[in-house]
User: What shape does this take?
Amino acid sequence: GNYDWIIDPMAPAGPADVLVNLITPDGKALRQEDWRVGKFTIAELPRSFDVPSIGQPQPVRLGSFARLLGYDLKATKNEGQGNTDPTSSLALHSSSTLHLTLYWQGLEPSPISYRVFTHLIDADNQIFGQHDKAPLNGSRPTTSWVEGEILIDEYTIQLKPDTPPGKYQLEVGLYDPADFTRVPTTDDQGQSLGDRV
Assistant: This one.
């Protein structure tokens, strides 16, 4: 059999053992002493609890385990001809690339390793650019977040070449990769904002 488990994010760094046993339905171990089947080392995660300067503050709660504090957004042309000023409304072209920085705050560890979705959408919710991934390129899954921790998460979103002129919005959220269920979002007053920011 294959077995997966989540290491407690508060587990101390250092050597650890993998223990195995068999138990009855009522919880009684069939072997008095556990089998020691492997060893590994728990690495210490670098954590920051200092909130940085955020260009676009937008506090939103996602489920019970995360808060999006805000974001920074800028754009570059594919030819590398400099940056567009980072404002709430960017003038883009079909050759543009969006550079999005999300500022997360952990509220508690999550039992599920969620993925982040970032979509550039038109008024009909059609996607013209996206970048989905686990936070910090997979190095800091939501199962590792602890209360008060700040995570700076960067995304590059390439616009589709056939993107027509018009007004677009950027939406962000979290989903379970097992079944694509999105995490509900709420504002600071607890009012539902749906399943995206």
